[in-house]
Structure formats: structure tokens, C-alpha cells
Amino acid sequence: MSRCIGIILFFLLCLPLFPESTGFEVGLRYGMGSRLPGRFDGNLQQFSSSFSPLVFSDVNLSGGKATNNYEAFIRWMLDSRNRVGFVVGRNDWDILKLTEVTSDLYYTKLESEIYSYTFLGMYHFTTPLFRNFEWENGLGMGFTSADWNVRGYSIGEPLPDTQYFNQRGRLRGSGLTFRAESAINYRLAGNNFIQLGLGYHHIAIDKFSGSYNGESSSFYIRGDGRVGVFDDTRVIDASVSSAQSFRRLDMNTGSWMLYFSVFQRFLD
């Protein structure tokens, strides 16, 4: 909620920066799409719940592909074809599921809820087609803040010494977001429009931080390429004692989306 309030305040402060325009447009948008597997998914495939190089893991990663976007936008008309404006929205992934079976007989299952808030500055160019149709193309970039909430469990060791551990994490990261889109606008009546379009949305977050099982932790990539959740103090100790290098897991991922918008055009 605090991020939404901050975005709205920033948006209001930017209003006086724009020059005289011939009008403006205000609208709402819903989009659904498919995320493209990339480096983020490849790194998670190397997940290991153990520090030991003698423990081998078999990892299965599923879900996290479908996305849903909910957005609002405002655009100022510099002339009949050129527009600049802002987009504020939220992007939700479906649940990302990770399971791991280790050679020391541990089974781990994690489910991740990942969603992000975005704020983009956009430029659009509109071309009249025929009758009430327009063709619109846009580019933009801005900021994103993502939440990564993890729930799951680990279970291991033979009976009667079986151990069970709950896994709970709440991580957050921020970075940049980029957008390219193309759409067809149709005038319904007066200055009311509907829009159907296709867009590519990309986010780049260099690290996540937060708490995991009550400790200040994050997802780390070790020097050997394996990924794990470690508390920050343990990482420092391991770096000193074993000369291993660690860096926090980044997220660079993009998705294609099909979107539907409704907006109204206000002319001066």
C-alpha cells in the first residue's frame, strides 16, 4: 500500500512538468500473458538446500508462466498523433513451484507467490486507419518493486528420526521495467474507446532481500552455480572460512501479454 501511495504522489508532482496539450486520455487496462523462461528460471533449476558439495539434488521447477496485469494510465496529447504519459499497475504470476530431492534423503517443496508494482513513463504514436479505428504503438520504461513470498516445507531422514521443517519467506526487490506495445483502438461513441493490443513487458531486479524462517536472508548463487536460501550471517562466515563467492539471485525476465483497455479522450 505504501508503494502505491508513493507512486500516486510522484505522479501528481509530475503533472505541472508537462507543456500545454490538446487534451488527455484516461483509461484502465487488463492483460493476460505468458512469461518467457530465462536466466532466472535456469538459476532456480540449480537450487540446493545443502551447503555440502557432496550432496546432490534433483530439482523440478513448474508454474510461474502465466501472468495477469492490472493497470491505469493517463496520457497527454501533444498533437493529434503524439502522446506522453504514465502507467501505474500490478503484475501477478501464477504460483511458481519448486521441488527438490537430495541424495541425503531430504525432500523440499516450495511454492512462490510473486507479484510486482510498476510505474512507467510512456510515449505513444497513433495512426488513423479507417472509420473509427486507430493503430497505436508505444515504448516506455520505469521502475518496479516486486514481492516474493515463499511457503513450503522440508522433510527428511528415515523413521523414526524423520524431521519436518516449515519454510516461510518474504523477500522484496526493486529495479527497472521496460515496455513495448502495439494496439488497435476503436471509437465507440463520442470520445470513448476500447483497445486490443499486444505488448512485451520486461523487468530487471538485481537482488532480493528480506526474511526467511525468521532470519535476514535471501536467495544466493554460489561460486559453483548452485542456488540456495541462506541467512546473511551464514553467507559471510562461509565466504571467509571456505573462500567461496556468493551473490544474491537476480531476476531478469520478460513476458508477452494480450491486453484489453477502455479509455476516454478529453479534448480541449
Q: Roughly how many Å is the radius of gyration? A: 23 Å
How big a fraction of the residues is strand?
over 45%
Termini separation comes to 34 Å
User: How are helices and strands ordered from N to C?
Assistant: HEHEEEEEEEEEEEHEE
Uncertain residue segments: none
SSE-based structural type: mainly beta
Topology (elements, then pairings):
Layout: H1 2-14, E1 23-36, H2 39-44, E2 57-63, E3 66-77, E4 82-93, E5 96-102, E6 106-128, E7 133-156, E8 163-189, E9 192-205, E10 209-212, E11 215-222, E12 227-231, H3 232-242, E13 246-248, E14 251-267
Short description:
The protein contains three helices and 14 strands.
Give an overview of the whole structure.
The protein has 268 residues and is mainly beta. Helix content is 11%, strand content 66%. The chain has an eight-stranded antiparallel beta barrel. A hairpin with a 2-residue loop joins strand 10 and strand 11. The protein starts with a helix and ends with a strand.
